[in-house]
Amino acid sequence: MARIKYQYNPETLRYEPWRLKGKSLRIRTLVLFSISLVLALGAYSVYTQYVGSIDEIILKQRNHTLKVEWELLQERTRKANAELRTLIEKDDHNYRVILDTDPLQPSERQAGVGGSVKLDTEAFAEFPLVLDNYNSVLQLKRQLDVEVQSYDKLKAMIEEKLEAWASRPAIQPISNKELSKLHLTYGSRFHPIFHKYMSHKGLDFAAPKGTPVYATGDGKVDKAYFSGSYGNVVYINHHYSFETRYAHLSAFAVKEGETVKRGQVIGYVGNTGNSVASHLHYEVLFKGEHVNPINFFQRDLSNKEYQKLIEIGSQQEHPLD
Ligand SMILES: [Zn+2]
């Protein structure tokens, strides 16, 4: 509680509360105002010297934000560059080696792709750091464009290879379950009907009549008809210069012009044409020349099964056609 001052009044003969009046009041008020003003000015001076004006504070905050964003941008650019280097490394030394194709030449990578946004270099003359960073991002974009084009080419190459691999005859035309009953001869053999040595340009798979016969690669049925020597026969064109033939069938499961997939049933084992027992006569041709089909069975055989097939294939007893 504020202490109240008292003063003796000779007129009333009493002590009364003391109050400033007139000149004294004005002087005291002025002194108080001056002290307040000096203190306020002092506080403002200290504030502006050590803290800054409102505009400065806003500018400092913006500056800080820009600095953080700038550092993030530089970090992202560094990471993108590192990832691009990894992609180029895999492109040149992994994928292109697997696909048996040459790596891109440095000149092809440097060529880049146009279409970039032009920067007013004069306006940024006082900010070389900004200009340098812009140019490095631009360079990164060009290299990425080149790499994207390169990967598109690799993708097309892989798709072509996959189609070629799918087209290549690569399985047996008869199930492995019938392997012990196979009867294989390739080359010259004594013909059981014509009774003289004649060239045998396929393999004979002895199997019961009606055993399913499978397409050995993707392709298109070129022929499915009855021939005097082959009996019921299917020709499949596999593209990429491969052709297969399946003879002495008892029945067809496909028609001429039909597209077939590897492993699809195309007919059934029989004894039609120049044949002395139920079996499949199977031929493989590459660029129009006969090749030994035994070289195309590795895909679905173990080493032991493949060795057994080779041994059986070397026997030349009991020709079937
Ligand atoms: Zn044969």
From TrEMBL:
InterPro entries xrefs: Cell_wall_metabolism_enzyme, Dup_hybrid_motif, M23ase_b-sheet_dom
SUPFAM superfamilies cross-referenced by the UniProt entry: Duplicated hybrid motif (SSF51261)
Chain ranges of the M23ase beta-sheet core domain: 199-293
Domain of life of the organism encoding this protein: Bacteria
Database matches in Pfam families: Peptidase_M23
The entry's keywords: Hydrolase, Membrane, Transmembrane, Transmembrane helix
Database matches in CDD domains: M23_peptidase
Listed EC numbers: 3.4.24.-
Keyword Iron on entry: no
Gene Ontology MF, one: hydrolase activity
Residue ranges of the TM segments: 29-47
Alphabetized PANTHER family for the sequence: LIPOPROTEIN NLPD, PEPTIDASE-RELATED
Protein name: M23 family metallopeptidase
Organism of origin: Ohtaekwangia kribbensis
